[in-house]
Specification:
By secondary structure, this protein is an all-alpha fold. It has a single domain, classed as Orthogonal Bundle (Penicillin binding protein transpeptidase fold), CATH 1.10.3810. 67% of the residues lie in helices and 0% in strands. It contains eight helices and no strands. Helix 1 crosses helix 6, helix 5 packs across helix 6 and helix 5 crosses helix 7. The mean pLDDT is 89.
Length: 169
């Protein structure tokens, strides 16, 4: 019985060490991104886009549709959604691959602003740190506004206004 407890203890220490390594690497990735371009500068760059669309210009039906598809609890969480992350982790473990991300709109915004699309644990952790910073500096409406002006809509369109013009005009 003592051997079993020691094995569990050692296994737990190894898992915690690996977890700390990922968190440290993710935090370093976040710090590097912020040092290269502070959040305020990145936001100014987004707002300077030719067809930047403000939140007040967006139809409520569109806002509701995006939130229902991308992040049902957007207005309730602080930038990360532990329920979504847990669900995604279970699906990823079952598939033994990254099949679901569990990212919030704020995390997706962080990724679009600073990071690559590469599926790595360190990047996901960096997104969490960035999402917290974004949430601490901007309102949910501003975050949503930045999001719809940075996501890829296909055919080379990165703002909702460009995509709408392509589809409806």
């Amino acid at each position: 019985m003592k051997i079993f407890i020691r094995v569990i203890f050692i296994f737990t220490l190894i898992v915690l060490s690996i977890l700390l390594l990922f968190v440290g690497n993710g935090y370093n990735m976040y710090q590097e991104a912020i040092n290269q371009m502070p959040l305020e500068e990145k936001v100014a760059e987004i707002k300077a886009k030719e067809n930047y669309t403000e939140f007040s210009e967006l139809p409520q039906m569109y806002i509701n549709a995006v939130i229902s598809v991308e992040d049902k609890r957007f207005f309730k969480h602080p930038g990360i959604d532990l329920i979504a992350i847990g669900r995604a982790a279970i699906h990823d473990i079952k598939a033994m691959d990254y099949v679901e991300g569990g990212s919030t709109i704020t995390q997706q915004l962080a990724k679009n602003m600073y990071f690559t699309q590469e599926k790595k644990m360190e990047r996901k952790i960096a997104e969490v740190f960035m999402a917290w910073q974004i949430e601490n500096n901007y309102s949910k409406e501003e975050i949503f506004e930045f999001y719809v002006n940075t996501i890829y809509f296909g055919d080379g369109y990165y703002t909702v206004k460009d995509a709408a013009k392509r589809i409806f005009w």
